Amino acid sequence: MRRTIIRTIFAAVLGTTIAAGGAAQAQMPTSATDTTVVLGQPLTLNLGVPPAGTDCATQAATLNAQALVLVANGQTIPGARASFGCSTKGELVGTASTSISGNGDDAAQRRTAWQTAFSGFFSLAGAKILPVAFGPATGGMATAPKMVSIQGASDRDLGLAAVWFALVASLFLAAFFRHFGRTDAITPIAGVPMPANYRAPYSLARFQLLWWSGIVTASYVAILTITGSMDTITTGTMALMGIVGGTSVLAAFQDRRPSDDDTRRHQHAAAYLAAAAVTPPDQTAMAASLAEVYPPSQGLIPDLLSDAAGYNIHRLQLLAWTGVLGITFLYEVTRTLGMPELSANLLALTGISNGTYFGFKMQEQQVPTPTGTA
Questions:
Q1: Are strands 75-76 and 69-72 parallel, antiparallel or unpaired?
Q2: Which of residues 260 and 207 earns the better pLDDT score?
């Protein structure tokens, strides 16, 4: 049950095919080892008794001098060299590290190599049976391969990563809905009271900023929990956050600059005051004018996709692209145990999407023109 929950959190929600991977594993040969090796644990291969006339100690010394590394599923795993020795039965035994932790390029190369060895998907919870041998760092194999059951991460590390991911994501989600997701550009107008329990509309630019901040932060914490690596933020991720942050700054600046919406709000405020001055006060007119002076939230989706004129296509395209790229980003995190290095084309498309949104936002009308006003 626990493994099922973990798989659901890290893969099934993102549309991955762990079940298909498990079926493929069932068709592979039986592992030559009795237990599953979890990446991070030492991997030991019993290479058997050397050929007749060959001394085990001499053979072990020869292999140690070659500075061999692990080769998993045909993929050379860069890292610490393997060590060879002899068992009490005179069998040649080789041991190598399977660590994927650490910072820097060497650790990133090890994680990438293991991801490739796992045939394109880093199966975190499910073990895979792979042919493993020792070979030179330049490629190739120096020993006969053995079938070994290997698992991407321990249940404990994976469980902790899932908890941290869910906790951080929940904090950003709560921050968005509690306060930080709403526009704060609406200022009171003298003589026109702000409605009790007033809630301003949600902001699309703020949604995008918190969406990406939550995804990147939660992914970083989850990766750190499993790999121990603190240096996982890629250049593409930083560029993406720069585009999103820049759009948020420009949107906030646009919301605060003087505009025709300010004039229309004051016109509605005058209508409110006029309706309040008659005897008896025109409560219907007052309520209608008050809703235009302080536009209330119409709900998450209407707020994100519309202005005073209704739903807008430029808001839809930005929201759709943000959602699709975010889900793809999370898929890559679970697949590679690292932040994806977004291509120049993806970053350019994100920039175009945000630029289109901001260009149209400058022409949006958030407050409707009062009836009878030119």
A1: antiparallel
A2: 207
